[in-house]
Amino acid sequence: MMKNLLIVMFLFIGIWITSQMKADTMFVNGGNWIPLFSKSSYYIDSSNSKNVFQISQINNNFRKVDHPSNLILKKQTKTVWVHAYIKNTGNRKDYWLGIYSQLDILNVYRKTEQGIVLLKKYNISYANKQDIPDIRFHYVPFVLNKSEIAEIYMEIRNPRYYQNIYSDFTTPVENLFWENGFYWEIGFVIGVTFIIAVLSLVVGIILRRRFYFLYSLYLVLIAIIVVREEFFINIIKVPFLYYSILKTNSLFLLVIAMGLSMKIMTGFLDFRKNNGGQFRILNTIFDFYVTFGILASLWFYIDYANTTFDNPIYNGIWDISIGLSALAVLIQITILIWLGLQNKRPSLGILAAVLFGLINPVTYFFNYSRILTIYEISHPNYFYYVLLLEIFIMGIAIAYSYRKIKSQYISTLEDKLKLEEENSKIKQMEEEKIKQSILESQEHLLKSLSKDLHDDIGQKLSIINFSVENLRFAVSSKESINEIRSSILEISDSVRDLSHWLNDFSIGKNTIDEIILNEVERIRKTNIIKINFEKINNSSENYGTSTEENIIFYRCFQESINNILKHSNASQINIIIDYTNIISISIEDNGNGFDVNNQFGNGIKNIKERATLIGFSCTIQSNPEKGTKISIYKNDKPSNH
């Protein structure tokens, strides 16, 4: 009897305890993540006017959340109320309720024995510049003792984005520990993205290639979209920058990014090469994407308060943007397959198209907004790794393209320099031919003139001089005759010098020893003085003199011989050309000599100056009554001979 009574009593107690437990109660026991919406219900206030007290009286009108972790309502401009029971079955009592969504209004209430208490109020006011949230998501601290049950209400409104809300319940320590790792992972992705964007911009400036500018802008837009979708905007503590990014629309930025992406893809794959007509059509479509996205983004930024789904214009632009984004993916898939067929690699084209269809910014955004459910969202999202891989591949492509373009520039420059060099050589050869023709003509003319001066005028002056000499003995006024004779001699010397000067134009064809030997032979024929000529190291090939050097040598030699004949009273001249040390010429006489410490005359000065003009040196060795030696040389010191 007693045993049956105890069984009935325990059954009664169990039924009573069960009756006190709500069917949708969520159990928490410490550091684990419990999705709130897995045990929650929601109610849509179509009037947007009910308060929490009114809502608490209509619990029977709440509906069960369909998704195991997210509240997905797509376009919903009305106020959404969420109701949930949470029971702590563990020993910890400090908890956080985290809410992850882009919200305009968030109010969190807790029902207690004393009434309903407001725990969190968030109503963003762009006019008042409300304080920026502490961390990237909204959170509400809870103190929940063991076995205690908390009844909560959440008031949510998101009138301009798809309703896709995630909420969890865990301890602050575990939550912040996880968030810390997530911050580093997302921060790394965004940091790398911005660094590559800057590098691409620099490369674009250096190479002046539009492709790199577009890729840099594309990366910046993708980084902003990731910041917006992962709610990292809340970590920006500069109010102006925070509200500027907050009033951007990820979908409209996505349209711009896809327009740029299509331009980048066709440029990178060189689609224009064999598809000129199609490329022009596609390029017009790409420009439309960019223009449409920019105009929609500007309108959203300027008229933020009125850009909600209640506005039919905004609603239409949103739907058009969704369609354009999906169409962009289809266009790029088609391009990849088309290029694969063109290059006779259809399998590769199809594989690339499938991979791109799964891995692209549109799929990422659609999945986050729950327009599509291709994969379950996890953190970090696989798209970040794909983005890093894309950046790495594009970085290699940029480096390769930079190297290729640089090589092309260098090759083009080398070809240009080579062509200019060849043109310069051809021009120089033509100029040389013309110059040679002119010189030959001048040489022929001047030789004829020199011959006429020497043979005709020179002979006539000699006859006149002879006649005057005879006349001097017949006429008593010898002084006048002497003046006439002196003038005739001066004219004769001038004619001879002019003849020699004109003859210099033929000097360039002979070696210096041939030139001097010819002059020695001419002097020998006059029997005026004994002259010896010697050549040491019998080869002039060791040093080939230029025409200019030949003329200067000849002039120095002439000046030396004239000085000897006029001033030295010498009976013998010794001339030595030595090729042992490049070249050296010495002219030595046995005449009067002079004191080298006294100032030289104009003749000696002329010899030194002329030798210096062609980089030669000149030394004078002389003593009174012992003769003079003049040395002209190119080496460090004159010959010892």
UniProtKB/TrEMBL annotation:
The keyword Protein biosynthesis does not apply. The keyword Transferase applies. Keywords: Coiled coil, Kinase, Membrane, Transferase, Transmembrane, Transmembrane helix, Two-component regulatory system. Pfam families: 7TMR-DISM_7TM, 7TMR-DISMED2, HATPase_c. Residues 553-633 form the Histidine kinase/HSP90-like ATPase domain. One of its GO terms (biological process) is phosphorelay signal transduction system. GO terms for molecular function: kinase activity. The chain crosses the membrane at residues 182-204, 211-228, 240-260, 281-302, 322-341, 348-366, 382-402. InterPro entries: 7TMR_DISM_rcpt_extracell_dom1, 7TMR_DISM_rcpt_extracell_dom2, HATPase_C_sf, HATPase_dom, Sensor_HK_TwoCompSys. Residues 412-439 form a coiled coil. Residues 40-159, 187-400 form the 7TM-DISM receptor extracellular domain. PANTHER family: NITRATE/NITRITE SENSOR PROTEIN NARX-RELATED (PTHR24421). This is Signal transduction histidine kinase. It comes from Epilithonimonas hungarica.
